[in-house]
Every structure is written in C-alpha cells, then in structure tokens.
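Two records follow; treat each independently.
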Amino acid sequence: MEWPLAPSLHARLTEYAEVVDDGDMEKLPGSMVITGIRRFYDGEFMDHVGPSLIQIAKPGIGVDNIDMEAATSRGILVCNTPDAPSESTAEHAVALLMAVAKRVMVGDKQVRGAADIGRDEMRGTELLGSTLGIVGYGRIGRRVAEMCALGVRMKVTIYDPLLPGDAQLPPGVDRIHDLDQIFAQNQFVTLHTPLLPETRHLANEKRMRMMQPGSYLINASRGGVVDEAALIRVLEEGHLAGAGLDVFDPEPPLPNNPLLKMRNVVLTPHIASNTDAGVAAMQAGTVENMVKVLKGERPTWIANPEAWPGRMKQANS
C-alpha cells in the first residue's frame, strides 16, 4: 500500500494469502488482489497481472485512476473505502478555505523575510456571515457544510442533483438546483464531486467569471474538476481573490505551472486524507475488503457492483 501497513493488518492479510509488498512489479502476474500501486490501471495492466486477478483494492474514495469499464468487462471487482477519508478531507477543505481567506501563506512569507509583502496584501476576508457554495453534498460536502454553517456561521448553499428532494439539511444550509447560481451567488465555492466525464471542468471559465470579483475557489476533490488553465487566467486578471487547491491537473503540477508562483493561492500536494485517523481508517477498510474477497465473501464496498461476482465465481468454483 501507499503507506506502511500496520503490523496487525499485515498479519490479518497473511492469514489468507502471501503478501508481496517489496515493490517488485515483476511479481505481479498471478496475483489475486492488488492495492497501493501508484499508476493508471488500464486493461493492458490488468491483463499483465493475469486472469487470477479478482480485485483491485483502492484506499480512499476516488477510482478515477482505474479504467472501470476494463475492470468490469474482465469481472474484476474495484473496491474502495468511501467512508474512511471523509472527515480528514472535509477538515482539509475548510483549512484551505481559511488559509486563503486569512492570507496565512503571505503572512508566513512576510514573517520569514519577504519584505516586499505589505499589510494590504495580507488583509484577509472575514468569514462570519459570508456565503459559501458547496458543489457535491456527499459525505465530505455534508461535513464541510456542518463545519462552516454551524461552526463559522457562514451562509451555506449546496448543489447536488443526486440528493433526494426530502433530504434534511442543517440550520444555515439551503439547497439550490442551478449549478451556475452556486458560482454566481457565493463568495466562496468548494468542490466535492468525483471526477466523471460529466464533472470534468465543471468549474470552467464561464462559471468562474460568474463569481463575484474578489471570490475564492477551493478544490480538494480531483484536479480535473477544475479547468486549471481558466483558473490561472481569472487569478492572473485579479477576478478571483484566491484559491485553495489540494489537487491538480496534471498531478503533481508541472514545475512551470503559474499557480506555484501565486501568493494568493494555497497549495498542498493531495494530502487532504493523509492524517493519522484517515490513513488508519483507509488501511483498515482496504484490508477488510481484501480479506472478504480472499474468503470468498462479498466486500463491503464495490465501486463497480455490476462486476459481482465476476472472477470470484470462477476462483471459488
């Protein structure tokens, strides 16, 4: 896995399978379950592992680095842990929002010797009573709404076309059914959607220009949800006051990416879920998904349920 596996979880896996975790890719063929390989899982890669592969176990929520159609057509289960990183990611999104609004990074640079940073550049934005639009009201979006509406007392508006009409919202949270209006009506917009064909560049140039001058964009979902070239333009022109980004497109950002030089942008290297509790929960959930498959049981979370039982049926027959 991406992080060293806790000894108790490693022992749990070895009850049911030989565990190969030395990074030797030549040992992949013949594997039944794989996890933690930082690459795009396409059909060619799946075929390289071979017909014994029955599960790709993904820590965290996103499965956009996996060719889901290729996995499903081969009967390979793609399992994730959508509950595990939610709290840590929501907290990180709020931290980015506060850091960029309060000019934390420019203040830090000034204290460390950047004499060209004046007090005007360090003047922040008060959040009490300001407006926040949340795109995506799943596990993470809900927690961001609670923290900002109930804790900071921002005026929160959410957009999620998949949310049931009778969903109960916390005090201070309202719903809108027009995505464009989320951008047009709020000083802050934060994105919490998966990367799908219909959400790629959801935050496009048209919508970012709908935002009020001096607004902020926060993204801790996936880089491709934002048209990054358009974001750079509206920031360079001064239309947006700033942005807080944990994800990029491509990722990591290229060395010549203008965002890296902007002092009104707070950047982190896709670490929103990388907390002690977040990592522990993702590891435990991933191992549990793997153990269930190795025992011939249905995993708790399957991102492509249409693949069930797929190759598992062959493996257990």
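The next record belongs to a different protein.
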Amino acid sequence: MSKIKKVGVCGAAGTMGAGIAIVAARAGFETVAYDLSADALEKAATQTAGFFDKSVARGKMSEVDRDAVLGRLTSTTDLEDLGDCDLVIEAVFEDLATKQGLLKQLDGICGERTIFASNTSTLSITEIASGCERQDRVVGLHFCLPAQLMKLIEVSPGINTSKETFHTAWVWTEATGQIPVETQDKPGFILNALLVPFNNDAIRAVEAGVAEPGDIDKAIKSGLGYKMGPLELIDLIGLDTQIRLGEAFYPITLDPRAAAPALLRRMVAAGDLGRKSGRGFFDYGNKAMFGG
C-alpha cells in the first residue's frame, strides 16, 4: 500500500505537468498543482476540466467521479503550499540549474518524509539530487506524453537514492494504475534513447522531401501499429524540447541520428514549437488538451 497520500506537481501549467497532476488526482491522491503563472494554471485547469468532460461524454466516467477528481486538484503559485506533500514531482524546464534550485527551495519547505521526484529524460537524477540535502529521497519518475493517457513510468534511482525511496515511488506508480519499469540513471533511459533518433529520422524525411508530415505519420501508424505518428508526437513534446533531447544525447553517443536536424532548428527559430505555439509540423486551431 502506498505511503503517499498527497502529491505536489511543479510545472503543472505545462503539458507534461498538467498530465501528471491528472494521473495523481484521478488515482485518488490529493494533488497540488504548482506553477509560477496564475493565468497559465487557470488555462491548464480549464483544459483539465475539458478533458474530464470528454471522459464523461464518452461514458468513461460518471459526473460524480469527475467532480471528485477535480475536487482533489488545487492550484497554487505559492511553493509553500507543497510543504505537507508526501511526494513532489517536478516537471519544470529541462535545465539542470533550474531543477537543482527548485529542489533546494523545496528542501527548506517540505518535511523530512517528503520524496522528490524528477520527470527529466535528459538530465542525471544524481546531479539533480545534488541540489538538495536529501539525495537519498530523490528518484526519477519519467512519465510519457500525454501522461494522462500513456501508462509507462520509467523509475530511475540516482547513486544516492535509498532502496526505501525507490520502493515507495514504485508502489505509488502502481497505485496510480501506471506501469513502472526500472532504468539506470542515463540520459533518455529506455524510451527516449530509442525514440529521439527515430523522431529525428522522421524530421529528416520531411526535410528531404520524402513525403508530407501527414503521410509520414500515416505510414508509421498504419505500418508499425503506432497510436501516434512521430511528427505528431514531436508537436506534442515541443520542437524546442526535441532539440534539447538531441543536445543531451549526441555528445554522449556521438550518433549523428541523435543530433537535431537543421529543419528542426529553423522551425524553432521561426516560433513553430508544436501544439503549445499552435503550429509545428501540423496546425492546431483547437488548443484543447490532447485526448480531451
């Protein structure tokens, strides 16, 4: 049985953070969604409500259950409100100093029992943990986009993560109905180490004029059985995030497939970041949460 009763999510106005908050609240945990912008949090809350409204309309949950889930979700711009959480999951900007600084702040706010988890896929859990005084209580919990629909969580211990912390995090993932797998503390873990070069290949196919983005995605979904095409996925992840993933993996692997394609960099420079900007490889007139 999970020892965790209350969960905090940092970066909860973002696509990943909002999805993680849904996972926690839907599983019955009191959930506090934290971000710096009240307006961004309000927008995320509206999208979350819309997601659950669609679930009700499709007969996947009752109105009573929807209201109960939304009742377990609160939003805040005050980090102090995470002080009594048993687990705090950070899904903030993929920058080591930013994540270390956040954990340092949380260290002085949260009780000794609180576990800190990072959703990073490119940075070292051990290095992130070095930003606080409780390295034994820091663990990697890497969700997959869209977190509210995908089941996988890669659970990664840092060098100093205690066995108790790892076990508690593992039991919590099971309690949320997710599927945990253990990985080593290496950039990309399992999924992104394989996926980032593959996604870059799809971008290069567009760049080379092999086919239009929609046809490439259709071929991958139809021929390989993927539920989402690689270019649609990159739009969901964010084209700027795809660049950061490549920049993390290429120096380690020296695999040219991991390096960010020139087209990707041009699109980011033009402001075409994917769903969050309204345009990437596809145009998005409807900014509703994915799956909502």
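Discussion point: The chain has a mean pLDDT of 94. How would you locate this feature using only the token line?
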